[in-house]
Design a protein that fits this description.
The protein is of the alpha+beta class. It is built from eleven helices and 17 strands.
Length: 383
């Protein structure tokens, strides 16, 4: 199992993309770190209409950033096609060493950074410095194709390993990503789990803050299981399903039932935060604001597992859903889900009160058999 913590910093126009590698090297030098894997993926999205006109497609490919980059740096090799169109996306030309292990080294690409930034017009430009030896330890990067595999299955189409190629590298390092639609991001990823111990990344975090001041990164914890662990957890969760079904039956008798949407479109007005904060305090939940109209009330069991009640109304408040999930390391069970259409503050408060009260009662009276089935979940776990 790998435990990787990510800090994703949204970057504006300053510093420009061409200067980001310098920030990476300043970070590495500050801590005496080295990077053992230099990866890149530059892509051009191709127009939909060219699929019906081979001549136009040939012209578009000839004028693409990938082809122009190849003329300047033959070491890139011929651009390859990601067949996104048949999967409901756009076809892409790519120059990448992520899936080939060969291509241009960093020393050849750094002098081209201003052209990558300004001249070649790539749809996306991704550069990764991976296999960084944080804590003096090295865990090699992996190519995670699970997203491409699941997406292919959803479309009932053959598995295409190049889908989402720029997102596939996973490991300890620094990723620089710039997209034509405006997103620009620097991401730091650190393996925290070594020899069964979760190490403290605080020193690295402080340097991130110095290099990228006044920014608030998105902080994500990623858990990567080995194939053997995945199989073990899948077997355990399947065996626990009868216990989970018993929990659903208990909750079905106690929690509110879904109501019917109003026949006429309405614009209800009610506030959620103050009500949910009060209920969290009253019934012993941890309260968290997620995004506008979305909140989570969480209760931990004595084994470290999490009972999470998500309340989501979107921006309109036309509909409010309550979803109850019980999860922990390697497992997750959805135990309750229902949607309601409160017309005012009084109706929302009553629905939220009953749901929170019955969820707290469930945690005390009926959750134990399912909770005790699983081994303890460590304190560092996040769903």
């Amino acid at each position: 199992m790998r435990l990787i913590r990510h800090w994703n910093y949204s970057i504006g126009t300053k510093p420009p993309f061409s200067e980001w590698p310098e920030l990476v090297h300043r970070f590495l030098d500050r801590h005496g770190l080295s990077s053992g894997a230099f990866l890149y993926c530059f892509s051009d999205a191709l127009s939909y209409y060219t699929q019906w006109n081979p001549a136009l497609l040939e012209q578009e490919i000839a004028a693409s950033g990938c082809k122009r980059a190849l003329k300047t740096c033959p070491g890139f090799g011929e651009p390859r096609m990601i067949p996104g169109r048949q999967y409901g996306m756009m076809d892409e030309l790519v120059l990448s060493n992520i899936d080939t292990g060969r291509g241009c080294p960093e020393a050849e690409i750094l002098p081209l950074m201003k052209r990558i930034h300004r001249s070649w017009g790539f749809s996306s430009s991704v550069i990764c410095y991976y296999d960084v030896d944080f804590f003096g330890k090295l865990v090699p990067w992996e190519r995670d194709m699970e997203g491409a595999r699941e997406f292919s299955e959803q479309k009932n189409l053959p598995f295409e390993p190049m889908l989402f190629l720029d997102r596939q590298p996973v490991g300890s390092g620094i990723k620089l990503a710039r997209y034509s639609f405006g997103k620009q991001e620097i991401s730091f990823s650190i393996d925290l789990l070594h020899d069964g111990v979760v190490l403290d990344p605080s020193a690295y975090m402080e340097t991130m803050k110095e290099l990228l001041p006044n920014r608030h990164p998105k902080d994500v914890l990623q858990i990567l299981f080995t194939p053997e662990e995945k199989q073990e957890y899948a077997v355990r969760q399947a065996a626990a399903e009868p216990l989970a079904e018993g929990c659903r039956a208990w909750l079905a008798q106690q929690l509110p039932k879904e109501d019917e949407p109003p026949r006429k479109y309405s614009f209800p007005e009610y506030k959620m935060a103050s009500t949910l904060k009060a209920l969290a305090k009253k019934y012993g939940f941890d309260y968290k604001y997620v995004i506008s109209g979305n909140y989570t009330l969480t209760k931990r069991t004595d084994r470290g597992h999490r009972l999470e009640l998500t309340v989501d109304s979107g921006l309109s408040h036309f509909e409010t859903s309550f979803v109850l999930i019980f999860n922990g390391l390697g497992f997750s069970h959805c135990l309750y889900s229902a949607s309601f259409h409160p017309r005012d503050q009084e109706e929302f408060d009553a629905c939220a009160e009953r749901t929170a009260a019955k969820t707290a009662a469930f945690a005390k009276e009926a959750l134990a058999p399912l909770s005790q089935y699983y081994p303890d979940t460590p304190n560092w776990y996040r769903a």
